Amino acid sequence: MACRALCPFPVDLSGLAAVLRLRRRGVLPGFGLSFGITLSYVGLLVLLPVGALVWRGSTLSARQLVDVLSGPRARAAFELSFGASAVAALLNVVFGLLVAWVLTRYRFFGRRFVDALVDLPFALPTAVAGIALTAVYSERGPVGSWLSELGIHSAYSSLGVAIALVFVGLPFVVRTVEPVIRELDPRLEEAAAVLGAGRVRTFALVILPKLAPALVTGFSLAFARALGEYGSVIFISGNIPGKTEIVPLLIVGKLEQFDYPGAVAIAVVMLSASFVILLALNALSARLSHGTPR
Amino acid sequence: MSTRTLSDAVREPRWARVLLTFTALGFLGLFVGAPLVTIFAAALSRGAGPYLAAIGSADTWAAIKLTLLVAAITVPVNTVFGVAAAWLLARYDFVGRRLLLTLIDLPFSVSPVVAGLLFVLVCGAHGLFGPWLSAHHVQLLFAIPGVVLATAFVTFSLVAREVLTVMLAQGSREEEAAFTLGASGFQMLWHVTLPKIRWALVYGVLLCNARAMGEFGAVSVVSGHIRGRTETLPLHVEILYNEYNFVGAFAAASLLAFLALVTLAARRVLEGTDE
């Protein structure tokens, strides 16, 4: 009651809620209150800011949009962001599948520890990941020095960007594929073996098609996450304009010069790009799971 | 006999299992293990004395305090919201339920830099409420309130997501029983619902806390980087690193890495208690 006195807003909304409540499961109380809290919070923290971006974006002319996006620096940044994100997500699909397979099918010493380690990129702050990856892959780092002897410069290059994006995307692929591997019907593999297929053939023709929707979903999640990633990339990339500058950094640069229309234009493109990619890949994944009935 | 050969036929040969396991471990070692070890190794590279001195420096303390303050505001607010939203989405069907679910997931898929930009567009001098705010002498952007808002946005869905998954799986029979036996809404929440979801709630809160303390991109855009005033621990890590104070940067980073490890360990423990 005290809460209602303090915030009249949710009460107003609970009246609206009663109108909107067409079907309601069960008889449980709390609809009005939870609806009020959720809608006010979502409205204030998500709808309002996103609305502000859309509104600012709509005031831009097509000419402004083209000017901002067609410059050589912006083009290079978009190519790098999309390219490195795709490469990193693909690498994660291959190695994430391998990690998920090994973790679910094999028993080895330290498996639980390794399993927990997979979630680290999800819990570790991106700035911390960024300086740690830079230390590992710079020319004086343990892996970077070894790579530079082979003539490969990992940090401060587009390869460094991809390395950071592999790090941030890994748990998305592993955690999407893992439950599907665990729930594979063992009879399918047995049937394939009885019919004379070897393990490689069984994997390619029986198991892989079953995992395809999860792999596509994992790819889309890792790709979308990589596209927006900032903290872990800016340390390892070196941020050379036109060469190793990612799109989120471009937005930060525009903001530092108080070029709000420029920042908004790029942000609108980023937001719609990740939205479109997610939608397209979701549709593809739905079709794939439809094509292979369980 | 025949089942034995069959179970052998659906497993990879031993050499392949060993090869695949080592490849997977090598990949994880290169991309996850090596960076994790490096954080602590670099922080302690000059011994324990400089490490403790770096953590005890005034600027680092100010950053730690601000980080704790921001988490102390955003985590409880997001927890109340998370339980309310999960209850709403798990127990009722209404027009726009799917849209609401998408809106709750949205902060998760937005680039942190874009998230920061959103609040610049709302609270900044040229933003939606900029003129009104400056007329009333309220400074949100490049000040602590802006940092709190941006952090709340990026950690928005974590508690809601964790609790929602569990609420959907558990169903609402116990609540219905409590309600038909005459419990009030608050009694039902306190004695039935919260005990049912407690482990998911605890993990959601821990995850939300880890992310709130570690957020970098969004906070970096809205904070204005005023040293000792609007600098959270991750921003402090960046500044020390760019000043070539590597021991200091990795010492501050090791605190955040430790927090991440505790969060992951807690998840394992809590998963065990749920079974």
Q: Could you outline the blueprint of secondary structure elements for this entry?
A:
The complex is a heterodimer of chains A (294) and B (275).
Chain A: H1 2-6, H2 8-20, H3 31-58, H4 62-70, H5 72-105, H6 111-118, H7 120-123, H8 126-137, H9 142-149, H10 158-182, H11 186-194, H12 199-228, H13 231-237, H14 247-256, H15 260-291
Chain B: H1 2-9, H2 14-43, H3 48-56, H4 58-91, H5 97-109, H6 112-123, H7 130-135, H8 144-154, H9 158-170, H10 173-180, H11 185-214, H12 217-223, H13 233-242, H14 246-274
Based on CA atoms alone, the radius of gyration of chain B comes out at: 24 Å
**Can you give the helix content of chain A as a percent range?**
over 70%
Oligomer description: heterodimer
- Portion of residues in beta strands of chain A equals under 5%
How far from one another are the termini of chain A?
50 Å
Helix content percent band of chain B? over 70%
- Number of H/I helices of chain A: 15
Low-pLDDT segments of chain A: 1-12
Radius of gyration of chain A: 24 Å
What is the overall pLDDT average of chain A? 85
Describe the overall structure:
Chain A is mostly helical and 294 residues long. Chain A has 15 helices and no strands. The longest helix of chain A has 34 residues, at 72-105. Chain A is globular and about 65 Å long. The model of chain A is unreliable at 1-12 (pLDDT under 50). Chain B has 275 residues and is an all-alpha fold. In chain B, 80% of the residues lie in helices and 0% in strands. Chain B has 14 helices and no strands. Chain B is globular. The interface between A and B is large, with 95 and 98 residues.
List keywords for this structure.
heterodimer, A: 294 residues, mainly alpha, 15 helices, B: 275 residues, 80% helix
What would a concise description of this structure say?
Chain A has 294 residues and is an all-alpha fold. Chain A has 15 helices and no strands.
